[in-house]
Design a protein that fits this description.
There is one protein chain. It contains 3 helices and 10 strands, in the order ααββββαββββββ. A hairpin with a 4-residue loop joins β5 (117-119) and β6 (124-126). The protein is an alpha+beta fold. It has helices spanning 2-28, 38-71, 108-113; strands at 76-81, 85-88, 92-98, 101-105, 117-119, 124-126, 138-140, 146-150, 154-160, 163-166. The strands form 2 sheets. A 6-stranded antiparallel beta sheet has the order 1-9-3-7-5-6, with no helix packed on it. The longest helix is centred in the N-terminal third of the chain and has 34 residues, at 38-71.
Length: 167
C-alpha cells in the first residue's frame, strides 16, 4: 500500500502539472497577448509597417507636390515697346529689368483708396502714374485693373503669373 500511494501521488502530480502546462499554453497564445519571435518582427511585421508608412508618405508628398507645382510657375522675360500696357491678374509678380514703365490703376475705387502695385523691395505702394523702380520685386495683388505701361522706347521685365499685353 505504501507503494501504491506513492504511485498514486506521482500520478496525481503529473496530472496536475500537465493541466497547468496546457492551461498556461492556452492563456499566452490568445490574440490579446501573442508571443512572437524577433525574426517574425524583423521579417514580417517590420516590412508591413514600413510599407504602410511609405504609402502614407507618398500620399502626402503627392498633395504637397501638387501645391508647389501650382504655385511654382517660372518667370517669363518680356521685351516690350513704348505704349504697351500689361494688365495683370491676381498675384502677378513683376521685376523691371531695363527701361521705364509707370503704374496704371484703372478702377476708380482703387485710385480713391490709394491701392496700387506693391513694391516689396521698398515696402511701398506704387499708385497711378508712379514709375516702376528697376530691379524691385513688385506684386500686383488683385485682378482689378492694375498694371503698368512702358514709357521708354523699350523695356524688359520678368513676370510670373497671368497677364494680358495691350498696345
Amino acid at each position: 500500500m505504501n507503494r501504491m500511494s506513492k504511485l498514486a501521488t506521482i500520478g496525481i502530480l503529473l496530472l496536475v502539472s500537465m493541466t497547468l502546462c496546457v492551461s498556461a499554453d492556452g492563456t499566452y497564445s490568445t490574440h490579446e497577448d501573442p508571443l512572437v519571435s524577433l525574426s517574425y518582427v524583423n521579417n514580417v511585421l517590420g516590412p508591413q509597417i514600413m510599407e504602410q508608412v511609405l504609402a502614407k508618405i507618398d500620399e502626402e508628398y503627392v498633395k504637397i507636390s501638387d501645391i508647389s507645382m501650382a504655385s511654382a510657375g517660372s518667370y517669363t522675360t518680356l521685351a516690350l515697346t513704348q505704349g504697351q500696357t500689361v494688365m495683370a491678374d491676381a498675384c502677378c509678380e513683376v521685376v523691371l529689368i531695363s527701361g521705364m514703365a509707370s503704374a496704371v490703376i484703372t478702377a476708380a475705387a482703387n485710385v480713391e483708396a490709394g491701392n496700387g502695385i506693391s513694391d516689396l523691395t521698398d515696402g511701398v505702394v506704387l499708385v497711378n502714374s508712379n514709375l516702376l523702380p528697376l530691379n524691385h520685386y513688385l506684386v500686383i495683388p488683385k485682378s482689378d485693373g492694375r498694371g503698368f505701361t512702358v514709357t521708354s522706347e523699350t523695356a524688359t521685365i520678368l513676370i510670373r503669373g497671368e497677364y494680358h499685353v495691350a498696345g
